[in-house]
Design goal:
heterodimer; A: alpha/beta; Glutaredoxin; 5 domains; six-stranded mixed sheet; five-stranded mixed sheet; 26 helices; about 30% helix; globular; B: alpha/beta; FAD/NAD(P)-binding domain; seven-stranded mixed sheet; six-stranded antiparallel sheet; 21 helices; FAD/NAD-bd_sf (chain B); FAD-dependent oxidoreductase domain-containing protein 2 (chain B); monooxygenase activity (chain B)
């Protein structure tokens, strides 16, 4: 404390104002301190800050410092540059610097802060099953463990847990976790669904170390009162035995507002009954209390037909007949408790609603646009009568084939129209559409079997399918690039240089900075193959061709000999050269596609598939919204690590969360929370699916990255999460018509029994069988004129 | 030698050797064809087209001088009652065939019946005219004036592989590897009873209504021909009674076009409004028609009261054969009052005499030209008037002999449209595919689709396909599920399903198969009454009108399954079934009521999520799950992801289907594309209304 005072200014109310240097010092010192970062006064957090500052003195009594960094004066990496950071209070403690992020919100009050700080040692943070195991081992035979899973710290659930720890801290070992790893360990089926939950681990009664602690999951929302009740229930005896009528039994459960279940025992089966009751008690522990009533006492007036009863809080006793344990569990969980739960929270656990809500994001968004009339002026609809003429005209005709009932078709039609507007005025390029719902033979003739489908028609050439992303930007770029021939034949080395630098055909620079050049000294070096490959890549990649003896001159100073491919990734970027080996045009095209891929790409929605295809683990750097040194420096470190050949087994790549906001969900899915940026993650997506998080407290330096990867390789790092194996089963329950038929019209959908000959065949109407000679024509009877 | 089944080839070579002399010498030469089509009616020409298209060696033999001779005579009153709806408001050719009941199938877009007539109910002569046009424009191989009087089976003795020898009126022989009988039904159906010789037949009655002036007419039969006759004479005849065993079945109630069509049913009006016409039910076998003088009974003095005009004119009385042999066991030629039912039963419906009795009982198949071993048995349905055929329309017991056209109606008699041009044209197409597989090893054509495209493709079929629509409950599309892909086969005969692999040459994988069928419903409600239509998709199985039903089977049903199928079902109980709710406009393309429920059904059958996702979602899911949903795998990861635009994403986010990027700093969602557009030097005039 004394030293700290020397290095930073301390305001009158006990608040420490840090400089960059004192901040670093503070981090190294291992003191517990709350620090927040401010740039300018933010009205939403102002009140909070005021309260916090006021309590700084009080907290100091607990040995906790409250600090502030004024970012407008001091620049501290990772913290001062990010908008996000400004909204949180950071708790620093020990060498691992950042322990916790506290959200500023109405639910977080000083009250909580104090608890949190005070209880810091009381509540152990665990992240992995192994860590939990250690806690359990220590507790066995001495104390029970209460473990809370809090997904986002600072929410009311977190506060409830902390309050409970304050009250019960001396009695139980409190443990807190936030990742999904432990959830899975605790057999939670769908960890992504769980916001907060709590377990009671019965370790006190476990004597042998090899024995696991049985645990009970609290099945109610994490509130202070629920936790209190739950812990009381854990303390209550598993099974209460009584020899009076259920109405007279007074047990602790009744006061705790939980259902009580009564089982009736007869003297002759008392041992068996007790086993049953205990089994049931374990199953229902924390949800209901169990009482075993001995019938031999005359005061038990329950009729013999019933062997069980239950009493819901504030309700009267109800008798029933128990057949097996499972039945009671089902009764309680599915019928009795939901009634309560409904009262509490109507949104929870609603049975699947068959109402007509679309659950397909594309279908729903198109449906919401059903009032929209698309302006199809620029995308004339072709018919069977106009189609042939339209695609035969000179120039390029781009035709979208669609069907109206396909949401993807209708959504893409919007993009197609956007492209048509964007390309208006471009000579020799027209867009049109064919509604395959109406012009089925046109689409049939063009062999269209999937929708939407884009075909490019050029006179004298076979129709070429568009095989790119179905998006306005991708199609637009493709069509623009396609305007120029491929390859572009260049006539001098100067032109080659200019082409590679982006000066030649500079209009394409914005769409496709990558350029590939084929250099040949003579036409017999496989130029034809290159030309063929270039044709197939038209619109995809800008390719140049230079065939000349003087091309040899280029090899000076390069290690590659001709014929060769030169790749430029943009003006000023180091060009790469690749020797051209004899190959087929198809293989060459594939090779060119590979070559143009970045070695340290920024992953975007548009390009991810190209990189995922490589099947390597992703060494993924998430960077924040801004540009600047905070972003570029980690990128440089990654490049450095890559340049020394240390990252060959992984694909180093990065995601800019500003440009690719979906990356945020990815990061959150990986770690369970969004850490401060930049964040480096290793995602073994093609392999075992484990995700590792580069320790945020460690500087992101190339050598650290390499070291960290090495440690992962050696199984020395704990994984921070795992990519789940999602089966992608049907998203909603099946609406079973057969079951409904069987219920509403028994027999209607049943196979006929094999023995009975099918009678009443449709083809043999009863009328014909009703012969003429029968009663109808007996003269004594009337020949009835059958009314229709 | 186009047939490629090896043993057939060998055997036929052998037979060629044997018949060499006959092949090249003499007038009585035997001509060889792989396919002989008997009859140049609509079914024969239809098959001719498919055989010509697949370049098979075939001949169509026709005894008359032009095609469709049946229609030169019938219907007698020369009005076709097949719907020729030229104006549908649609230009989808496939869809329009749902409402064009006369055209044959071909690859010529304009070879349609509407070229010869635009009437909803066209003049009958238009049909042979159309057939003639069809035959000429497609250049079909028809040999007219060839009257085949005898058909013999020529067995090779092995595996029952028969070929057929046809002999014409000149003794010329045609040896056919495969015989396709499309002779139609033209032998008038007759019932023999006392006095049946006094009855005129539909085939020969005068069609001029004046001939029936003030006459009482009894018509035997209550089908379309009976009503057609009644309708034509309604304004001239004094009294028209229709008599047959079963009550009138109205096509608009039964959905069977062979039942009484409303176009002919004016008599129902005059009957119900008590204008002297009527319908009576009773058997035909034991009736009798007897002749008596006009005044009837025993004549008294002063007999010439009635005047000269009726002198000699005999009247016809309806009676029962048992009344004729009442008195002494002998039938006396003179009919007395006691021989008539009215004598015993004073208010007997048909007690008044008739001037004419007309038989309108339909037609039967001509079995007489077939030699014993070549003759298919009589069908168990339709009173044996039709030949019995297998589910793939081969005569029972006559391998390589197929029955096409109206004569093949025993498969779906009183059920679907297989007896009518608009139905059997599809059956012929299906049989042709079976022939191609059996004799040429060309498997049933199939569209291979990525499974993510299955939903739009099924919707396409149910919204336009005419085959399953016309041949409802008989032909169905079959989808072979193969995991990420599937094969789509059109219009397979459902009853032949147990023999699917052999007939189609396609393999059913362990993923099972789907069958898309069009079906009418339970039909338990009043056809025009309230509650006749269902609009809730959750109650789609109660739909009454034609609607698509999709069956899912894990394995191909067996013959036994098929036999024991639930009463009234076209197929056995499946592993899962989906009814698409009937639609007033027959457009099953709405997202909430049609598309999504179908998607969920497919998801259940395929055990996978079939939803579509924007590229952004696929990006997220590709990075956060080890195997993203099918749509992302088949589109996005295949570099053909579907991007969408910010306007649509906004909708999806508002609906809670796409995560919002909370708290993230997004520099204008749509910025990048607008930027790129400005580079292009074009104005961005978005048509989308934000």
């Amino acid at each position: 404390f004394h030293r700290a005072r020397n290095m930073c200014t301390k305001s009158t109310n006990g608040l420490v104002v840090h400089t960059a240097a004192s901040f670093t010092e503070n981090m190294v010192s291992g003191r517990t301190s709350f620090i927040y970062f401010v740039k300018q006064a933010n009205p939403t957090v102002k009140t909070f800050i005021e309260q916090l500052e006021m309590s700084a003195d009080a907290l100091e009594d607990y040995g906790i410092l409250i600090g502030k960094v004024n970012c407008s004066e001091e620049t501290i990496e990772k913290y001062c540059t990010e908008e996000e950071v400004m909204k949180k209070i950071h708790l620093f403690r020990g060498p691992d610097v950042l322990r916790i992020v506290v959200l500023f919100s109405r639910n977080v009050f000083l009250f909580f802060l104090i608890f949190f700080a005070v209880l810091f040692d009381e509540v152990r943070c665990v992240h992995t099953p192994a860590e939990l195991g250690r806690v359990e081992r220590a507790a066995k035979g001495t104390a029970d463990v209460v473990m809370g899973h809090i997904r986002v710290l600072g929410l009311p659930e977190h506060r409830a847990l902390m309050e409970a720890a304050f009250v019960y801290g001396a009695k139980y070992q409190f443990v807190q976790t936030s990742g999904t790893l432990l959830l899975r360990h605790m057999e939670i089926a769908d960890p992504s669904d769980v916001q907060a939950c709590l377990w009671f681990l019965h370790c006190r009664t476990v004597s042998r170390l090899s024995e696991p602690c049985p645990h009970t999951l609290m099945r109610k929302p994490l509130t202070t009162i629920n936790i209190h009740t739950f812990l009381q229930l854990m303390e209550a005896p598993l099974l209460t035995e009584a020899a009076v009528d259920p109405a007279e039994v007074d047990v602790v459960y009744s006061h705790l507002n939980v259902p009580v279940i009564f089982l009736f025992s007869r003297p002759e089966t008392v041992h068996l009954d007790r086993v049953t009751a205990e089994t049931l008690a374990w199953r229902l522990r924390g949800e209901a209390g169990l009482v075993l009533i001995h019938r031999d006492n005359p005061s038990v007036k329950t009729p013999l037909v019933y062997n069980a009863a239950y009493r819901l809080p504030q309700e009267s006793l109800r008798y029933f007949t128990l057949k097996n344990v499972e039945e009671v569990v089902t009764l309680l969980r599915d019928q009795l408790l939901p009634k309560e739960r409904e009262k509490q929270d109507k949104e929870e656990e609603i049975e699947y609603d068959w109402s007509d809500v679309l659950d397909d994001e594309v279908a729903e968004s198109v449906y919401r646009d059903r009032g929209l009339m698309l302006d199809m002026d620029k995308v004339p609809e072709l018919t069977a009568d106009t189609f042939s003429a339209a695609v035969m005209q000179h120039g390029l005709m781009v035709v979208l084939f669609y069907v109206k009932w396909d949401a993807v078709s209708m959504a893409f039609l919007q993009s197609f129209v956007e492209v048509a507007h964007a390309l208006e005025g471009v000579n020799g390029l027209d867009l049109a559409s064919v509604n395959c719902g109406e012009w089925t033979d046109v689409c049939g003739d063009q062999n269209i079997t999937s929708f939407p489908f884009v075909l490019l028609y050029q006179p004298g050439e076979a129709a070429q399918p568009y095989r790119g992303m179905l998006g306005a930007e991708s199609l637009h770029t493709f069509l623009l690039l396609r305007q120029d021939p491929s390859p572009l034949e260049l006539s001098s080395l100067a032109e080659v240089a200019s082409f590679l630098e982006g000066d030649l055909y500079s209009r394409h620079l914005a769409h496709s900075p990558v350029r590939v050049m084929g250099l040949f000294t003579s036409a017999d070096q496989g130029v034809a193959v290159f030309v063929e490959a270039a044709k197939s890549l038209r619109g995809e990649i800008l390719l140049g061709l230079f065939v000349n003896k003087v091309a040899d001159a280029w090899t000076d100073g390069h290690t590659v000999s001709l014929p060769a491919l030169l790749v430029s990734r943009g003006p000023g970027v180091q060009q790469e050269a690749h020797t051209l080996l004899p190959s087929t045009s198809q293989n060459l095209a594939e090779r060119i596609r590979c070559i143009v891929l970045d070695t340290f790409p920024e992953l975007t929605v548009e390009n991810l598939p190209w990189y995922l295809e490589q099947g390597k683990p992703l060494l993924l750097l998430f960077v924040g919204g801004g540009e600047g040194p905070l972003m570029t420096q980690p990128l440089e470190e990654m490049r450095m690590a890559q340049s020394v050949g240390q990252l060959v087994d992984v694909l180093p790549c990065w995601i800019h969360l500003g440009r690719t906001p979906a990356g945020r969900s990815v990061l959150k899915a990986y770690l369970g929370f969004v850490p401060p940026l930049p964040a480096l993650v290793l995602s073994r997506i093609g392999g075992d699916g484990e995700v590792f998080h580069f320790p945020p407290e460690r500087p992101l330096l190339s050598k650290n990255i390499v070291q960290w990867l090495q440690r992962i390789e050696n199984n020395q790092e704990q994984c921070a999460g795992a990519i789940p194996e999602v089966a992608w089963d049907p998203p909603v329950p099946f609406y079973d018509f057969l079951a409904i038929m069987d219920e509403e019209a028994p027999g209607y959908a049943a196979q006929r029994s094999p023995k009975v000959k099918p009678k009443g065949k449709k083809e043999q109407p009863a009328g014909e069988a009703r012969g003429a000679a029968g009663a109808a024509l007996n003269p004594q009877t009337h020949l009835q004129q059958t009314e229709l | 030698m186009e047939l490629i089944l090896c043993f057939i080839c060998l055997l036929s070579l052998f037979s060629l050797v044997l018949t060499v002399p006959g092949d090249h010498h003499g007038d009585n030469s035997t001509r060889h064809h792989d396919y002989c089509v008997l009859g140049a009616g609509p079914a024969g020409l239809q098959m001719g087209f498919f055989l010509a298209q697949s370049q098979r060696d075939y001949i169509i033999l026709e005894r008359n001088s032009g095609p469709g001779s049946f229609f030169k005579r019938y219907p007698r009153h020369r009005k076709l009652i097949s719907i020729n709806k030229v104006y549908t408001g649609r230009r989808n050719r496939e869809f329009n065939l749902r409402h064009d009941w006369n055209s044959l199938l071909s690859n010529r877009p304009n070879l349609l019946f509407q070229r010869v007539s635009r009437d909803l109910y066209p003049e009958a002569d238009a049909f042979p005219h159309y057939l003639s046009m069809f035959e000429k424009e497609l250049g079909l191989q028809v040999q007219y004036g060839t009257d085949i009087g005898r058909i013999q089976a020529s067995g090779f003795g092995l595996n029952g592989n028969k070929s057929y020898i046809l002999t014409d009126q000149n003794g010329e022989e045609y040896k056919c590897r495969v015989l396709l009988v499309s002779t139609g039904l033209w032998v008038p159906e007759e019932v023999h009873f006392v006095g049946s010789d006094l009855v005129e037949g539909y085939e020969s009655i005068p069609t001029d209504p004046e001939e029936y002036k003030d006459q009482a007419v009894l018509i035997l039969g209550k089908g379309n021909s009976a009503f057609e006759v009644a309708q034509s004479i309604l304004g001239r005849a004094s009294r028209i009674h229709l008599y047959s065993p079963s009550p009138v079945r109205l096509a608009w109630q039964t959905h069977y076009v062979g039942d009484l069509r409303a176009v002919n049913n004016e008599l129902l009006d005059t009957y119900q409004l008590k204008s002297l016409d009527g319908l009576v039910e009773g058997g035909l076998e034991d009736i009798a028609i007897v002749q008596r003088g006009k005044d009837g009974g025993k004549r008294r003095a002063g007999k010439n009261r009635m005047g000269k005009s009726s002198e000699g004119k005999m009247q016809l009385y309806f009676t029962l054969s048992e009344l004729l042999d009442r008195q002494d066991g002998n039938r006396s030629t003179a009919i007395t009052a006691e021989n008539l039912p009215g004598y015993h039963d004073d208010n007997f419906s048909l007690r008044q005499p008739y001037d004419r009795v007309i038989r309108c009982l339909g037609f039967r198949f001509n079995f007489s030209v077939f030699d014993g071993s070549a003759c298919p048995p009589h069908s168990s349905t339709a009173r044996g008037r039709l030949p019995a055929v297998t589910a793939w329309y081969e005569g029972r017991g006559t391998p390589n002999l197929f029955i096409l056209g109206t004569a093949a109606h025993s498969r779906d008699y009183r059920m679907s449209a297989g007896g009518f041009v608009h139905g059997f044209r599809y059956i012929v197409r299906a049989v042709h595919k079976i022939l191609e597989q059996r004799y040429h090893n060309n498997a049933w054509p199939a569209n291979k689709l990525p499974t993510s495209q299955l939903l739009p493709w099924i919707l396409k079929r149910v919204n336009e396909a005419s085959g399953p629509y016309q041949m409802f409950e008989v032909l169905g599309d079959i989808i072979l599920l193969q995991g990420s892909h599937c094969e789509y086969l059109e219009e397979f005969p459902l009853q032949a399903l147990p023999r699917f692999s052999a007939l189609s040459g396609r393999h059913v994988s362990e993923h099972g198969l789907l069958i898309v069928v069009m079906q009418y419903g339970l039909n338990r409600t009043d056809t025009l009454g309230p509650g006749r239509a269902e609009s809730e998709w959750t109650k789609a199985w109660k739909s009454n009108f034609l609607h698509p039903v999709i069956y899912y089977y894990r394995t191909v049903p067996t013959e036994g399954d098929m036999r024991r199928r639930p009463v009234g079902w076209p197929l056995p109980r499946p592993d899962a079934v989906h009814h698409m709710v009937e639609d007033f406009l027959t457009e099953w393309d709405q997202p909430v009521s049609h598309s999504q429920p179908l998607r969920r059904f497919l998801e259940h059958c395929l055990h996978m999520d079939l939803r579509a996702f924007y590229a952004e979602s696929c990006f997220r899911l590709s990075l956060t799950s080890r195997k993203p949903p099918l749509f992302c795998r088949q589109g996005y990861l295949n570099k053909e992801g579907f991007v969408g635009n910010s306007h649509l994403w906004q909708h999806a986010r508002e609906a809670g289907l796409m995560p919002t990027h909370q708290g993230s700093v997004v520099p204008g969602d749509d910025g990048s594309f607008s930027d790129c557009l400005s580079h292009a030097g074009a104005d961005m005039t978005s048509t989308i209304n934000f």
